[in-house]
């Protein structure tokens, strides 16, 4: 992995931070979900039922959005493997312009749609009931792009690296697009040309890799 180059100039939260490997100790996955900050601060989110849902914990989500503080406003967000929608909803609460959620599991879709309705975000959100790759192809065919892409695929299937690889070739990326990928400690998700990993964080058994186009 290359070190120290950081993100490109536009609203770069890493200009003063060298790539570092950070651990916050063992992370306890919370069973309750809430919006951390912004206009919906404190809003409880429906987490659904069943083993198919492994929502990003409040602690990890808070840490990620602390890193992104001040650069999410007015941006378009894509939430892949959206689950409950907690990441995209957090972005909207903090001022994102709009969010597209891609999810195909029935119980996850139910939780996602219930959360968007409860938060009254239907007017600034879109739900695509599709598998991730199919959803990406659909969006590419329709046109448009995103400044932030979040992905949190199921662990143990190599989907984080595979999906980042698909995004590396996607027309949905702008030069400044930031990809935030959650993955397990055993899955290596490093640089995939033309993307470079510009930051990496450890939160207990969760890993977060940040990618942006090189150059």
Distance between the termini: 15 Å
Alpha-beta classification:
alpha/beta
Give the strand order of the largest sheet, numbering strands 1, 2, ... along the chain.
1-9-10-8-7-4-5-6
| Name of the CATH class | Alpha Beta
Computed CA radius of gyration, to the nearest angstrom: 16 Å
According to CATH, the fold-level topology is: Rossmann fold
Strand content is: 25-35%
Average pLDDT over all residues = 85
Summarize the helix and strand pattern as letters: EEEHEHEHEHEHEEE
Strand segment tally: 10
State the helix count. Answer: 5
Helix content: 10-25%
Contiguous low-pLDDT stretches (5 residues minimum) are 1-31
**Name given to the CATH architecture:** 3-Layer(aba) Sandwich
User: What profile does the largest beta sheet have?
Assistant: 8 strands, mixed
Number of domains: 1
Shape: globular
Instruction: Assign the CATH superfamily.
Output: Vaccinia Virus protein VP39
Task: Describe the 3D structure.
By secondary structure, the protein is α/β, with parallel strands linked by helices. The chain has one domain: Vaccinia Virus protein VP39 (Rossmann fold, 3-Layer(aba) Sandwich). It is 24% helix and 26% strand. The chain has 5 helices and 10 strands, in the order βββαβαβαβαβαβββ. The protein has helices at residues 58-67, 86-93, 106-118, 132-142, 159-168, and strands at 21-23, 33-34, 44-45, 76-80, 98-102, 125-128, 146-151, 173-183, 195-203, 206-213. The strands form 2 sheets. An 8-stranded mixed sheet has the order 1-9-10-8-7-4-5-6, with helices on both faces. Strand 4 (76-80), helix 2 and strand 5 (98-102) form a beta-alpha-beta unit.
């Amino acid at each position: 992995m290359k070190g120290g180059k950081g993100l490109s100039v536009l609203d770069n939260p890493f200009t003063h931070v060298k790539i570092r490997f950070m651990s916050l100790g063992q992370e306890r996955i919370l069973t309750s979900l809430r919006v951390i900050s912004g206009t919906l601060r404190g809003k409880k989110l429906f987490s659904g039922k069943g083993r198919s849902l492994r929502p990003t914990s409040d602690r990890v989500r808070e840490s990620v959005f602390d890193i992104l503080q001040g650069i999410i406003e007015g941006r378009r967000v894509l939430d892949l493997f959206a689950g409950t929608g907690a990441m995209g909803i957090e972005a909207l609460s903090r001022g994102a312009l709009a969010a597209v959620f891609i999810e195909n599991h029935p119980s996850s879709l139910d939780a996602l749609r219930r959360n968007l309705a409860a938060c009254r975000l239907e007017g600034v959100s879109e739900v695509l009931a599709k598998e991730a790759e199919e959803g990406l192809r659909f969006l590419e065919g329709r046109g448009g792009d995103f400044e932030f892409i979040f992905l949190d695929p199921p662990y143990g299937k190599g989907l984080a690296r595979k999906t980042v690889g698909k995004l590396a070739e996607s027309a949905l990326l702008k030069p400044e697009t930031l990809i935030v990928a959650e993955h397990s400690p055993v899955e290596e998700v490093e640089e995939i040309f033309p993307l470079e990993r510009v930051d990496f964080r450890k939160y207990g058994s969760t890993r977060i890799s940040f990618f942006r186009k090189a150059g």
